C-alpha cells in the first residue's frame, strides 16, 4: 500500500525553531516542504525534499521515481516560510537533522544563516562511507564549500563533534546522535506551554518505533544500535521530563500537528 509520508524536519523546520527568539518566547512552527509517496515498509526502512526538484525532477536521479515526492511550487522553503512572514535571510541558524536529499537539500537557500551540522555528516555527504552514498546529492552541499581556499567554509558554519546548547540557556539543545547517518543530530526544544519537545529527524520514523522498539529498515541504519539507544532515551525523557517527540515521516502524526499560522509555544 502506498502511503503519503509527510516530511517536515529538514532545513526548513528546524530553522524555524531558531528564528533568533528569546528563551521565554520560543515559537515552534511545523512546515511541510513536501511528502514522499512510498510504502511504510520502506521506512520501517526511505524518505524527500529539495526545491530544485520543482523545476527539474531529474535532479534527484532515480530517487525521484522511487520516492515520488510532492514537488508542487508551494512546497518551496521560501513559500513555506512566507506563511509566517519570514524570509530565508531572516533565519539566524539552520540545523539540518542530517544532509540526505530530503532533509538537507535546501541548505544553499540560506547563504546568510549559520549552518549547524556535525562534522562527520559534512564529511559523509562529500565522501560517503561504502553503501551510504545514495541519499546524498553532491550539488546540495557543494555550495557550502569554498573551493580553492585554505578555509573550507563558503558560508557561516558551526561544525560539531557533539552536542550544543544553541543559545546557552537550555532552550534549544542539539544532540549528536549517530544512528540513521554518521552525523545525525536530534534537538530538544524547551517550550513554555508545550513542554520539552524532541525533534528526532530520521532517527525515529513512527511513534510505534519508540513505543515498541521497532527497528528501521536496515538499509537506512548506519548504526542500528544507535536507533535503539535513541528510543530508550526518548522513553526516559517522556517518563522523567514529560517530554514529547516529533518525527519527520509519519503522515498521521503530521496530520495531527498544528500548522502555520498556528504554532507550539
Ligand atoms: Zn535520511
What does this structure look like?
With 265 residues, the chain is of the alpha/beta class. The chain has one domain: Metallo-beta-lactamase, Chain A (4-Layer Sandwich). It is 24% helix and 16% strand. The chain has helices spanning 11-16, 52-55, 62-67, 77-82, 119-126, 138-141, 207-212, 224-241, 251-256, and strands at residues 2-6, 35-39, 93-94, 114-118, 157-160, 164-165, 172-176, 185-191, 195-199, 244-246. It has a five-stranded mixed beta sheet with strand order 6-7-8-9-10, with helices on one face. A three-stranded parallel beta sheet has the order 3-4-5. A two-stranded antiparallel ribbon has the order 1-2. The longest helix is centred in the C-terminal third of the chain and has 18 residues, at 224-241. The structure holds zinc ion. Zinc ion binds at residues 47, 98, 100, 103, 135, 180, 202.
Task: Give me some keywords for this one.
single chain, 265 residues, alpha/beta, Metallo-beta-lactamase, Chain A, 5-stranded mixed beta sheet, 3-stranded parallel beta sheet, 10 strands, globular, disordered N terminus, binds zinc ion
